[in-house]
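Quick one before lunch.
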Amino acid sequence: RVRMRGVTIHRPIIYGNTAVVLTPEEKALLPPNKQEHTHRWTVAVRSAASVPDSDIVGGADDLSYFIKRVSFKLHDTYQNPNRNVDKPPFEVSETGWGEFEVTIRISFITEAGEKTVSVFHHLKLHPWSLLVNPGELADPNPEAAAKLGPVHSWQYDEIVFNDPFQSFYNILIAH
Ligand code: SLL
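Model of the SLL complex:
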């Protein structure tokens, strides 16, 4: 196992969420314990080469050549708040009523010999333009929000590997 001293290699990712307001028809299909839910959302880690507001997955967006697992830690109001995703797309979809901080833990293939990387994403449900007062807690008018369409909140980041193992480096550059 040879480390390449002085070498740095990085992979660009995006992480974040999309959210849409539930229609009355969708709400009617929710179980009784979820009747107060207002939104459907997806939180994800994707390649920065992908298009965040599309449904395109796999292909160029497949990060599984170096990512083994993405764990999404949801708010404790959710059943089984720890969601492990072991293959692409690295995402979790849920319904809910509130925004909260999602802890995202990214772990790498064994070959990498790298520690898990944690990032944090504030799950965003409400359009910026409807938050009249900064830090406002009350939910904006759902009809107005529905007209504005899906909310997107994505962050760009780079996963940096310093002194990578030669074999891991070879896997990275082969993609
Ligand atoms: C608050 N920051 O303290 C928020 C927490 C939690 C949202 C929001 C699902 C709940 C369920 C859900 O939307 N939780 O499935 O019962 O106000």
